[in-house]
Amino acid sequence: MLACSKPAPKVQAPAKQAAPAKTAVAKPPVVAAVMEGMVKVPGGLFRFGCDDELDGPCAQAERPSRLVQVHGFKIDKTEVTVEAYKKCVDAEVCTRAVAGDECNWGESGRDNYPMNCVTWYQADQYCRWVGGYLPSEVEWERAARGDDGRLYPWGNEAPDADGIFRANWGEGLARQLWIRDKWEFDAPVGRFEVGAGPYGTLDQAGNVAEWTSTIAPDTQDDPNPERIVKGGSFREYARRLRTYAKDSHGPHRFYSHVGFRCAAAK
Ligand SMILES: [Ca+2]
Predict the structure, then answer these.
(1) What are the residues facing 76 on neighbouring strands?
(2) How far does the centroid of ligand 1 lie from the alpha carbon of residue 26, in Å?
(3) pLDDT values of the chain reduced to their tens digit, one per residue, 266 residues
(4) Which residues contact 227 (CB under 8 A, 6 or more apart)?
(5) Å from CA of 87 to ligand 1 middle
């Protein structure tokens, strides 16, 4: 159970870095390009979590709904791609992702697919390398939800309302339904522009679910506490795509339906 009875979490600020010395090595070339792929998320109060009357029925882990103050920040417009992650591996900073089965690493033609099959540690390492950090759960939800308490990044309509597919998702084990949105498994990032969030993010709902920096409260005393994962994926029910929905996994685990995106200070 992920229920959190603690006070509303505060936005996690990126770790402070020591002032660069005059001889400091320049940041890797990829940084500028990655930052260009980010959108600005304004600071402010927003409603976080699930309210049974407004959003429900809610899972216990999604309660309570409360107002949370966030600082402005930036977040990747799309999930981190295989192509982007490979640059970090080539720089000998990141480790290779697992290959095979539904994993995208090492597969030809998958450069623009999300970097799945990475552990939380690999995702965290990549975001640090580009000068950012993994978003907290609150930051992730702020980017997806804006300030109007919407159920999905695009609004309150169901993902397939009026026959328009706003995300890449599935229906649990009903595999024949996975492909209704044109993609049986994950898709190249950014293919569902109609599903854009309030600040321009794409695929926050669906495609691959996304690691955040937030520890699952019910595992916080474990040696390797689980981290919150947000957004649902190509294999999950529409409800799992809701902005407040969440899951959690151990940081050493990797899955074909889990990837990540990075955040950065404003
Ligand atoms: Ca996603």
Answers:
(1) 38
(2) 31
(3) 344 344 444 434 444 444 444 344 444 445 545 556 999 999 999 999 999 999 989 999 999 999 999 999 999 999 999 999 999 999 999 999 999 989 999 999 999 999 999 999 999 999 999 999 999 999 999 999 999 999 999 999 999 999 999 999 987 666 666 667 677 789 999 999 999 999 999 999 999 999 999 999 999 999 999 999 999 999 889 999 999 999 999 999 999 999 999 999 97
(4) 120, 211, 212, 213, 214, 215, 216, 248, 249, 251
(5) 21
Separation of 265 CA from ligand 1 center, angstroms?
21
Interval between CA 166 and ligand 1 midpoint (Å): 12
Residue 28 Cα to ligand 1 midpoint, Å, equals 26
What contacts 86, CB < 8 A, 6 or more positions away? 111
| Domains detected in the chain | 21-265 (3.90.1580.10)
Centre of ligand 1 to C-alpha 19, Å, is 34
- Report CA(177)–ligand 1 centroid distance (Å): 18
Q: Which long-range contacts (CB under 8 A, 24 or more apart) does 6-9 make?
A: 6/217, 8/48, 8/66, 8/67, 8/68, 8/138, 9/68, 9/136, 9/137, 9/138, 9/214
Phi/psi of residue 246, each to 5°? Answer: -155, 160
Cα 79 to ligand 1 centroid, rounded to whole Å = 6
CA of 35 to the centre of ligand 1 (A): 19
Q: How many CB atoms lie within 10 A of CB 252?
A: 10
**Strand locations in the chain (E):** 38-41, 44-48, 66-70, 73-76, 209-215, 227-230, 246-249, 258-259, 263-265
